[in-house]
Amino acid sequence: MLILSHGALASGYYQTMKMILGEEPNLAYCALEEGESSEELEHKLASIIDWGSGSPLLVMADIYSGSPCRTAIMHLFKAKKECYLIAGINLPLVMEAYMQRNSDLQTVLDHLVETAKDNVINVNERLLKVKENSEDE
Fold this sequence. Notes:
alpha/beta, four-stranded parallel beta sheet, 15% strand, elongated
């Protein structure tokens, strides 16, 4: 599993997962840092991941139209291994992907897209429903 982002987001996800899980997550992360070029990111990605062989890979990117995601797409076209890419991630989605990492990746990917819809919550609306339910009792 590989997390890609702009700035410190990927590292932040990694560190947060380490804190929550109580162990080092078995995943890689890479970021396009301020002032870096897409070519520099390309070199970092090539050094982190063996795109030529090995077990299937799930790549998770922060923004679909961003340079990290576009760079990963270029690698996917050339990869000789089974690779999947999902964009628009948040911490609950990364955690869910990590917990499912030993499952069939196509199934995991489909599940993540559905899970993502449940992770964005209108808290005001939810609190209003709770308040209304408690007043009805």
